[in-house]
Each structure stands twice: as structure tokens, then as C-alpha cells.
Design brief:
With 313 residues, this protein is of the alpha/beta class. It is built from 12 helices and 10 strands. Strands 3-2-4-1-5 form a 5-stranded parallel beta sheet, sandwiched between helices.
């Protein structure tokens, strides 16, 4: 673990600490972080997806104390670093130079450098380069630290109002329609919410393909999250086809599609299936098997079984 952690002094319980406002406490916390040594290793630092105020104190302290910050786009990241008066050296690290730069980074890490990786926005490695570097660092026994923070993926998912207990992040879909539709067909069987990033000019055609292949699922198009023109549009995929302009949207876009809704199952259908199942298993086992198959309460199936037995007497 890194050694940039802070804690209350054993001699000064929190309840007896001087009363400070949020700004003073934040200032004291960042001062403590900046004064502590930063352990050598690779730091994956999340940065804001729009609002510069969403960066964490720990992220600021790591970026300020790192020997080098590798950025997806150094010009883009310069705005964030200048805003917080961070003068750490930067180098580019993107899809086109990842293989070459990863070798250099590993050499630097082996010489006990503190290296930070940031993307243009959000949490590194999510539809951004870095996976190969982390894998190489782990293989060399080099410490890799996560500095969590903003994520467009999680921001869209949690504000969508769609199920969050199981989800699959699919990143960007293929830009060509045939490949995109093939990928959507492959993803259609996943039992959970689906989360996608999409280029703003392709949103309309992507939603149209989703409506064709995923049916009437509920979905959300989240645009410009945390920014001035943040917008979240909810509805069925069919409704979203009508709501999204044909020429697409402006800004960063995340699409969340809810899981396939269970078909309504009638008592008559369950009773018929139950009669067949009871020929080879007990009512308890049959009720569980049919409840799992149709996604209905076990008590409902069991009750239908008892009712059928009463009717036979």
C-alpha cells in the first residue's frame, strides 16, 4: 500500500479536535497528504468528467507528488493541472504509442519512480489505454494503486433509474452498422443492464439498432454528465428513437439499456407446466424449477400446485 494515508492522532480524539469549516478541513487534509512521502509505483488517477470540482484531494496530492504524469492528451490535461497549480512533468500516453511508451514506463518504475496515469476524463483504462501497462507492471511485481474518483460509466448507471445489481460495460460499439448489430445481438442475452459509450453523431443510428435488436427495453441517454448542459433522457428504446435527433447530439454520451423484461406468465401456463413437472419430481422441487425458469415467485407456483391437488380430491 502507499504511505499517503492520514489519520487522527491518538492523543486528540475527533470529538475534541478544533471546530473547523469544510474549507479549513479540506485545506488541512490536502496539506497533510502533500507533506507525506509518496511510495514508488504506478498510480491510476481518476479525473473529472466535466466539473473540475469533482477531483478528489488524494488525486490532487498524487498528481502533485508524482515524478511524471502520463496523459491521454497532454494539451487537454493541461487545463486541469494548471487549474490546480500542478507543475509535474507530463508525457502523452494513448492508443497509438501505448506499446512503445509502456516499455519506457516499466523501466522508470523499476528505478522507483512514482508514475501517474490519467485519461482525458474519468477513470483510466475504461475504454482508454493502460491495460497492457498495468498487466506488465503487475507481472514485474511493481505496485499499482487505484486513486478512485469520477466515472461517466457509474454516473450514468446510478442516475438512470435502471437496475444496478448486475450490469455489463460494453464500451464503444463498432461504428459500422453490420458489426454493431452483430455485437448487440451477442450482448442481448446478458441478464443485466448494458452500458455503452457512444460518439454523439452516431447516437441516433445506435439507438435505432438497439430498438430493432433489444426490443422494448427501458433505456437512458445521458449527455454531458456533470457539465453545464447535462441532460438525461429516459424511455423505452422505441420512444428514444423518436426523441433523439437524426443528426445526433452534442457532447459526451453514455447509453444505459435495462435488462430484458420478463414475459407475463399466466396461471394457466404455470399450472400446465407444473402438471408435467410433477410426474418426475416433488411439488417443492417443481415449484423451485419453474420459479427459476420463468422468473416468478416460488410461493406462487407452490400455491398453484396445492390448489391443483385440492381440485383433484
Amino acid at each position: 500500500m502507499s504511505d499517503d494515508h492520514t489519520s487522527f492522532s491518538a492523543e486528540t480524539p475527533p470529538s475534541q479536535a478544533p471546530a473547523l469549516g469544510p474549507a479549513s478541513r479540506a485545506e488541512a487534509a490536502i496539506a497533510a497528504l502533500l507533506s507525506a512521502p509518496l511510495a514508488p509505483g504506478l498510480y491510476l488517477v481518476a479525473t473529472p468528467i466535466g466539473n473540475l470540482g469533482d477531483i478528489t484531494l488524494r488525486a490532487l496530492s498524487v498528481l502533485a507528488r508524482a515524478d511524471i504524469i502520463y496523459c491521454e492528451d497532454t494539451r487537454h490535461s493541461a487545463r486541469l493541472l494548471q487549474h490546480y497549480a500542478i507543475a509535474t512533468r507530463t508525457r502523452p500516453f494513448h492508443d497509438h504509442n501505448e506499446d512503445r511508451e509502456s516499455e519506457r514506463v516499466i523501466v522508470e518504475l523499476k528505478s522507483d519512480k512514482r508514475i501517474a496515469i490519467i485519461s482525458d476524463a474519468g477513470t483510466p483504462l475504461l475504454s482508454d489505454p493502460g491495460f497492457k501497462l498495468v498487466r506488465a507492471a503487475a507481472a514485474e511485481g511493481i505496485p499499482v494503486f487505484a486513486i478512485p474518483g469520477a466515472s461517466a460509466l457509474l454516473s450514468a448507471l446510478t442516475t438512470s433509474g435502471l437496475p444496478t445489481d448486475a450490469f455489463f460495460f460494453a464500451g464503444f460499439l463498432p461504428p459500422k452498422q453490420a458489426a454493431r448489430r452483430a455485437k448487440l445481438a451477442e450482448l442481448s442475452a446478458i441478464p443485466g443492464s448494458l452500458v455503452f459509450y457512444e460518439a454523439p453523431h452516431r447516437v441516433a443510428e445506435t439507438i435505432s439498432d438497439m430498438a430493432s435488436l433489444l426490443g422494448s427495453r427501458q433505456a437512458v441517454v445521458a449527455r454531458e454528465l456533470t457539465k453545464l448542459h447535462e441532460e438525461i433522457v429516459r424511455g423505452s428504446l422505441g420512444e428514444l428513437v423518436e426523441a433523439i435527433p437524426e443528426d445526433g447530439l452534442k457532447g459526451e454520451v453514455v447509453i444505459v439499456v435495462g435488462p430484458e423484461q420478463a414475459q407475463a406468465v399466466s396461471d394457466e401456463m404455470l399450472t400446465a407446466r407444473l402438471a408435467a413437472a410433477l410426474e418426475v419430481m416433488s411439488l417443492k422441487d417443481a415449484a423451485k424449477a419453474l420459479a427459476d425458469e420463468f422468473g416468478v415467485p416460488k410461493a406462487r407456483v407452490y400455491g398453484l400446485g396445492l390448489k391443483a391437488k385440492d381440485g383433484q380430491r
